[in-house]
Each structure stands twice: as C-alpha cells, then as structure tokens.
C-alpha cells in the first residue's frame, strides 16, 4: 500500500540532483522559514526548562511554597512544563501546515516533474534549472 507508492516514485527520483534542490531559492526560503520559527521557540523552551531546574535546585523555599492543599509551586511549574510542551507542539503543527507544507509540496512537485535531474540522467540538457 504505502510502500507500493514509494517504490513507484523511487524510479523517477533516482537521478535527482539534490545539491541543486538544496541550492534552489525555494528550498533556501523553506529552510529559512523553518529555522526562523524553530530556533527562537527552542531557545525559549530551553530557557523555560533551565529556569525550572535552577529553581528546583537553588530556590527550595520558593518551590515548596504551598499554593493550595498539598500542591506547591514546584508541582504547578512542572505541570506547566507539560502544558507548554503540548502547546508548542500544536503551535508548530499549525505553523507547518500554514507556512512550510505548501512550499515543501511545491518543491516536491518540481522534483517529481524532473526540474532537478542530474546531468546525463535521461535528458540531453542535464539539469533543467
């Protein structure tokens, strides 16, 4: 089923010049868009996680402050870590669906249409770009 489709495409993708794909302006834009989202969000998440760890190590009194019942600040911040993970995941999926996937689909279509053939791979012109 899924493997059949992959093997059918494999014959048409054997002679793709992937260096030309990577150097193309469309791919560079896709990579830049991806990185402009991922790196800042990753940095913020790492700071958030590191802050939690540092608070747990060095601010025992603050982290053990009871908020209600047996629930303390450390438990709430730990739960916030989990919630943050799910929120960032949903945010990234939404971003990818809106910004990355359409561009990636265009690049894939160009590759499958033969726009990035290696020189001597079945057409006299070599690379079509």
UniProtKB/TrEMBL annotation:
Residues passing through the membrane, by range: 37-59, 71-93
A Pfam entry, by short name: DUF485
**Is Glycoprotein among this UniProt entry's keywords?**
no
Q: Which UniProt keywords apply?
A: Membrane, Transmembrane, Transmembrane helix
Protein name (database record): DUF485 domain-containing protein
